[in-house]
Amino acid sequence: xxxxxxxxxxxxxxxxxxxxxxxxxxxxxxxxxxxxxxxxxxxxxxxxxxxxxxxxxxxxxxxxxxxxxxxxxxxxxxxxxxxxxxxxxxxxxxxxxxxxxxxxxxxxxxxxxxxxxxxxxxxxxxxxxxxxxxxxxxxxxxxxxxxxxxxxxxxxxxxxxxxxxxxxxxxxxxxxxxxxxxxxxxxxxxxxxxxxxxxxxxxxxxxxxxxxxxxxxxxxxxxxxxxxxxxxxxxxxxxxxxxxxxx
Amino acid sequence: xxxxxxxxxxxxxxxxxxxxxxxxxxxxxxxxxxxxxxxxxxxxxxxxxxxxxxxxxxxxxxxxxxxxxxxxxxxxxxxxxxxxxxxxxxxxxxxxxxxxxxxxxxxxxxxxxxxxxxxxxxxxxxxxxxxxxxxxxxxxxxxxxxxxxxxxxxxxxxxxxxxxxxx
Lengths: 247, 167
Fold this sequence. Notes:
heterodimer; A: mainly alpha; two-stranded antiparallel sheet; B: 2 domains
């Protein structure tokens, strides 16, 4: 075999593909290449010393605290304009009220029909609450001790409830043309289904794989973003409604 | 988010060499991610996507700084960027070299082009594969490989004379 060139040595150091399959063997037998590789290792190990200060334990939370207020008013993951949600909210709320959330659907349905803005407010609250609870379920699993098996039966029950609930929100989002929101709700749903259908007792490996998938999907970030949007809209609506009452 | 935040901080710090700048980059990255969430391709990894955003934020900051001809806002604690010499041989001579090595490493890193630095940081410190680096830097894996290779060559030129074993 020919000597390894500099590029091959770098690729070999990083365990990248594209190095001759017998490179390791060659390095064992070829003094010149071994010396060249050792020189490379010395340089790159020196570069390892470029250390980074450790951010605080709760750095992620701190970042989110600073970012969240700035999300308000930026409507990129937009929920549909108020009038469209209001119309859909009336339908959705009627469905919600007919379900297990409130015992007396009939009078409320009338109230919603008479006041679509109230329906929209309730819808936002319901979606906000749904997102908060989804986030809690994910956080419970994500923060579990990675070295021990974890019993998720309690989270599974909550996830199953959330799956049943989300269908209405998704339908509403689709009806109002909010494909992005519907897509995000779909993502949340998929994760909740994954939890529901997992074994009740997760091994550390299963737990880690699950977390990796969530990380890769950025699901917690998306939930937070959508939650922040909903809360911003709630605040804006509350402020607008306060102004209307004053005038 | 905790995991992503820390990873982004590390990346941004190594790009900007300043903790405050790195924190700003992390925040700005999440804001940009939020603004661009519609464009997130579900088939891609969220981690790679947000790395791309953070790399671009870091590069933006470095470019602005360059245009203004500024060094990093405030040099961080001396210990923050002190490279620890390979532990094989902690002789007094080598320990005495540490200050020089630190300076050489900083100088060598600053000689890298923006792309080389980003590619090297992503490969060497963050452990991304060349293909992933290509996604982050929006280039072909071959171009990513070339950038890493060029960065390593430059570092070798600067550091080899001082880390070579004394014969």
